[in-house]
Amino acid sequence: MLTLETIKNYLRIDFTADDQLITLFMGVAEAYMRGALEQYDLMLKQEHLKAKIEMCQLVIIQDLYENRNQAGYGVKDFGYTIRSMIGQLQFEPVIEEESP
Question: Using one digit for the tens of pLDDT, what is the confidence trace for 26-38?
C-alpha cells in the first residue's frame, strides 16, 4: 500500500499543507483501481502486479493533484498513460490461490 511519504516523494512535495488533499487522492486512486480491476485484491498479493498497480495509482494521484484546479471545465478523462496501464493490468494473468 502506498504511503503519504512515498506519494509526496514521487510528487516532489516537501510541505504538509496539502497532506489532507493528497490523502483524499490516495483513496480516490485506490477506489478507481478497485473498480477497474476485477481481481484487485488478489492482484495486490502478487508482487509484480502490486508494483504495477501502485505505479498506476501514483500516476493517477499526480494527475489529480496537478489538475485540481480544473473543476468546472468539463469532463476530464485520464490520459493515455493511465488508460494504457489499466488496460495492461486488466489482461494480466492472475494466479489463483490454492485452497488447503
Answer: 999 999 999 999 9
